[in-house]
Each structure stands twice: as C-alpha cells, then as structure tokens.
Write a structure and sequence with these properties.
This protein is an alpha/beta fold. The chain has a single domain, classed as Purple Acid Phosphatase, chain A, domain 2 (4-Layer Sandwich), CATH 3.60.21. 39% of the residues lie in helices and 21% in strands. It contains 10 helices and 10 strands. The strands form 2 sheets. The chain has a 5-stranded mixed β-sheet. A 5-stranded mixed β-sheet has the order 4-5-6-8-7. The radius of gyration is 18 Å and the shape is globular.
Amino acid sequence: MSSRSSRLTYAIGDIHGYDGHFERLLDRIRIDAELAGEKPCIVLLGDYIDRGPASRQVLERILRLEAAEWCDLIALKGNHEDALLRFVKEPEFGETWRDWGGAATLASYGVAMPFLTNDPQVWQDVSAAFSRAMDPAHRAMLERLPAIYQADDYLFVHAGVDPDRLLTEQGPETWMYIRGRFLRSEKACDHVVVHGHTPDDEPSNLPWRIGVDTGIYFNGILTAARLHGETRSFLRVEGDI
C-alpha cells in the first residue's frame, strides 16, 4: 500500500535546544518549498528543549514560525516539554528532569540547576525562580501544544502509538513516551506513524513508520521527513554541537 500526503509536509525530529541547526533546516525547507511552488505544512514532533544550549531561543523561534506567512505550523508536545511543565507544578520532579538534560533549559533562562541536593526546599526555590524567569508566552505555548496530529494517511506523534489499543483508547502519555512495543510492531495503526523520541544515526523509513530523531545532541544531525503526494524523502543538516 502506498501512503499519500495531499499537501507538501515536512516533519522535523527532536531539536533539543540546538537552535542553529533548527534555523538552518528551516532555511532548507523554505527554499525547497519555494522550488516546489507550494505553501508547506511544517510539523514539529516535540522535544524542543533540554540537552542543547539554546532551548529558550528554540521556543522563541517556534513562536515566530507560528506567525510566519510562508508556512503553516503544527507543533506537538514531547516528553521533555511535559517534564518542564511538570517541574513547574511539582518541583520535586526536578531530580528526574535533571537526568533528562533539564539543566540546559534552566541555564538558557538564567537559572542554575542544583546537582548535589535532594532538598525539597531547594527544588521549590529553583522551580519558583524558573517560573519567574520563563517567558509567559513560552509557557503558554507549551501548555496548549497537542500531542497528536493526523493528515491524510499520516499520523504525527512524538513517540509512537500503542499497537495493542485503539487510538481512541490512548492519550498523550502514550503518544509522548512509548517505545518498545510500538517500535517492534509491524503495523501499529491504520496510518503511517511519523515520530521522533527514539534516536538513531539514520531516519527510519518503514512502510508503516517513519522515525526522524537522528540524535542531534550526540551526533549533530537534525532531520526532517518530506512528504509530498506518494513520495517520501529526507532533508538534514549537520554540524558541530
């Protein structure tokens, strides 16, 4: 079976605070779309923050992209955005977020992550400082991000879907966090699932699954899937991190 996208669509994998790579990939996408003579849809698959040096700048760029006239934007929520919002509401979650690279996000807003403490008061103080430092528009954007988007034969999520349950029985927790059973499934649902979350050196291009997290934080490669009619291809940028 061939899958089809009636509109020129680019799905960008996990950015993780690497704003320079993000900017360069958007430039490539814009040129490619202009050559195709179409206004594209850009789908961001989540994990815009953590690990890399410029999480704040990435979120600011996403806000600008939302307002841009040359494309339409769908930005999805990843598990790292979920972790940030949880830390704001549950400061004790900071110990987990720290292990996920949250220190880089705090630093981009001028807040230091504590590394040698599990004192609840310390985490409350850091969470409060972060809430004061974070741009209100950034937090509002993260809170309104959807976790799933469907167009034509394609289903876009951050992590994947549960192959053993109907989509109507699933929710954001699954779509932002699942790995094993989804990745092992030959066909997880009736759509081609386009996702990030699980990094690999090369994108996955399987009949029922396209994975575009190419591990920017360890190999410096940011990838987008290009979907147009019945064709699939990939755009990528790479460089020092």
